[in-house]
Write the structure tokens for this entry.
Amino acid sequence: MAISKILHMGCAKSGFQAKHLANTINYITKDSKTENGLYVSGHNCLPETALKQMLNTKRRYDKMGGRQGYHIIISFEEAADTVDKDVAMKIIGKFVEEYLGKEFEAVYALHDDTDHIHGHIAFNSVRCIGEGKKYDYRNGDWDKIIQPLVNKICEEYHMATLDMDKVRQNRKKKKERIWDQGKDGKFSWNDMIRRDIDQVAAEAENWDEFLIGVEERGYEIKQGAHILLKPPGMDKGRRLDTLGGDYTEEKIWERLSIPISAREKELPEPVLELPPRVKKVTGYIPRRKSLLTGYQKMYFTKLYRLGVLKKQPYSDAWKYKEDIRKLHEIQEKYNFISAYQIHTDKDLENIRKALAEQAKSLRQEKKNQKENREANTEIFELWEKLQELKVEVSLYEEGYEEFKEEYLQAEQLKTQLLDMGYTFDSAEQLYLNFQEKNRRLNEVLAEVRRQQRIGKKIMQEQKERMQSRDKQKSRERGGESRDL
């Protein structure tokens, strides 16, 4: 069975307008993903010159702006070792031939680097014949035209097909749900999205490859003022800026600016060793042979009593949302006390002072980083401009004369760097070292601040407990006096 989805490639905000189209073509035709180009083909164009032909078509009809192209992914749901690659390639080719006909130039390829074989089709947004009208996708085309055509071709090759009636029924059921699945899954959806982002970002060479990699995992992407990712099976997506940490759009761009080989290396340890991050409840509280401190007993008892919550079915998690939040908070405090070996109020106060000193030191480091950035601003700006021209320079070096102006601009920028004592590579290393140190500082400072918040909450609870105990004693003394 093959499932399809269609995406569009917009106009780049700066530089080469068809940059996203160029990056998509480069990505889907990579030798490492297509058995050295064995499973790559062109439709109404040659794969080697596809981009040039598409650009010529756009110029001929004076339609260089707007959407640059479309990207269709056809994924075979069967395990990779049960699908014949040659047959899968024929299915992709036949779909391209019937769906795009003589009107559109396209490049298509088959990838076998995941658990499921899947095909990619990148086609021009402008028709190459007639009046050069643009492709017009309308709501309902996937249901009425695209997936039914995929089903028809699969039938011809004796493969299973997607039940469209079942798809529509599932959609209807989702709309009729009485609770928001996206909110219900709060405790797992975010983690799953972050894991997928980590995996894709570790292998992508640029932003476009990152988006394509996310789409290959079945995500829907909405681009506007904020990037929204919607994983398969989730009613509502997540905005990148709400995931926080290293998962905002800015942080992902920073990750992608680091060479792939460097991303695989282990990150340096924090300035001070911090307690382990809070783990979610595992379903039971383990027995401990060592004696617990007074602080630990208090939170360990709370954890034990609340541990029964984990027995509730996950589908009903939304009903226990507030209880689960409290459970995680108590567990967080217990881990804090255990990791720092806190036995008394004085121990707690000493740890809080140490964390405050560390936070102060890290803030000074960030201030130094800001000064470092200002000192190297011109070098960084030159390097960033060269990065923006990277696609155009590559295209010119491959023989596309129309990018001569961008190529000459890049050469001029390199000369300016040399005058300042830097090559492109040394400027890149300076930039990447700065970004990595900045990222690490932010990470450690965020963790220290989190630890400070936990310590403050525990101290506040202790004060409230002592006040409550004093009031109780005062009431008891008052009662004794009346008895006398």
Residues 177-187, 265-292, 308-320 have pLDDT under 50 and may be disordered.
